Amino acid sequence: MKRYKQQIQLPEIGEEGQQKISQASVLVVGAGGLGTVVATYLVAMGVGKIGIVDFDTIEETNLHRQFLYSSNDLGKSKALVLTSKLKKQNEHLTICAYDEELTISNFDEINKNYSIVCDCTDNLNTRLIIDKNCFTKEIPLVHGAVSDWQGYIILLHYKNKFQYQDLFDIKTLLQADSCESKGICSPVCGMIGSLMSNEVVKIILGIESNLDGGLLYVNGLTNNFKFLKLKRL
Known about the structure:
alpha/beta; eight-stranded mixed beta sheet; 8 strands; globular
């Protein structure tokens, strides 16, 4: 427990909370700008089992925000490289790589041993698959997204039962620009990813969150943070 001494000192965690963290299991979908941050913090805090899903390979344009990768990793699997590096960071945990695309047909098999999902993807179809399956299985989903200088985070399928499709019109999203066409600011990935990992730990500990039924918007250019309370129509 010495490794986690500083967080155990927090009254909301303590030794009992650290035990809960060590017994928790989290699936991180996407090993890019958000997933790298989320997985790194969860490993550092001692989450007992972490799965990392990504079928993409590392490209040079990833390196400015996906900070655990280096030039020597170009062309390699993101899931495999990230898993390998995180195992060295904390050898006491179970960290599993899934070097494959998450689909409707393999979601149950991949996610069967995880109780929380983090959506760190930038692919709408994958987001919809995650949303649908988390809804069906009643699995808490920590969802975040980043584009240019902006990002947001929200909890879905938790106590208030909000879904991704409660927030956005899917037809409009299908026509939206991707982060590749708009660009992306690296530190904003860090901010949103850090907040996502913080929300995961709060779920594990049973701490109430205003993001269960609320959305936190971050603008790194103007330094504006806005909290939006959600309402179903």
